[in-house]
Amino acid sequence: xxxxxxxxxPPDPFLSAADLLTTEHELDHPVRVRVRDDPDERTWAAHYxxxxxxxxxxxxxxxxxxxxxxxHEFAHMARYEEGHASHTQSTDEALFLALSxxxxxxxxxxxxxxxxxxxxxxxxxxxxxDVAPGAKLIQFLESELAAAVADAPGPAGDRPSGAExxxxxxxxxxxxVNAAFALGLAERHDLIDTDHRLYDLARxxxxxxxxxxxEPFKHRFRSLIDDPSESDFRRDLVAVTKAxxxxxxxxxx
Length: 253
Fold this sequence. Notes:
Layout: E1 3-6, H1 12-21, E2 31-36, E3 43-47, E4 52-57, H2 58-61, H3 66-81, H4 85-88, H5 91-99, H6 106-131, H7 135-151, H8 172-188, H9 197-208, H10 214-222, H11 230-245
Parallel strand pairs: 1-2, 2-4
Antiparallel strand pairs: 3-4
Helix pairs in contact: 1-3, 3-6, 5-11, 6-8, 6-11, 7-8, 7-9, 8-9, 8-10
Region (Disordered): 151-171
InterPro entries: DUF5781 (IPR043940)
């Protein structure tokens, strides 16, 4: 696997991630790692005819999670190369099918794209958890969720222990879906026990977003089929989009 790091960051985390990936998967195209100074854009992958690009912020590239973040993006690249339906189905097409003729808030529409990314993340992390321990990933998800829950509108006394408030309020609705994603991924791979703190955080997130059904969303993420056809994935993406944007998931809870 050909990996070249541009931007002055230490190459070791990226080479280590590549070594992990190649124990089970191989990329046909080379990867260019571009380290960027914008800390708000943590990581994202781009795909071209003859190569992939892993864009990563300098902050992320030099963090304790650098290897795991790189491995996650390499897994997306592997899914793309294998033509996995989650990475070939157009999000725009599915959202059009789900929301045609409906009036949807702009923030909700933006959240729908984030939820589509979560569905792709499930399939990428099926690879990452297959080739590397999932403990650091769970710690990362727990930390992200704790910050979002602490940051949500509401009395500080309602926040779970250890959840420190941040500077900008989070959106409770998408935080609840993010909690469902974290639990769905963790349960899909048996990574946590029933008393894990993620469950406490998810309950707090659900309380902050009473119109969102955390359990049904968790079930959707956890039960995504391993090798969907494009029709399968489009159906699932349309269904979860309707559930979130049109507010009918709570009724199924």
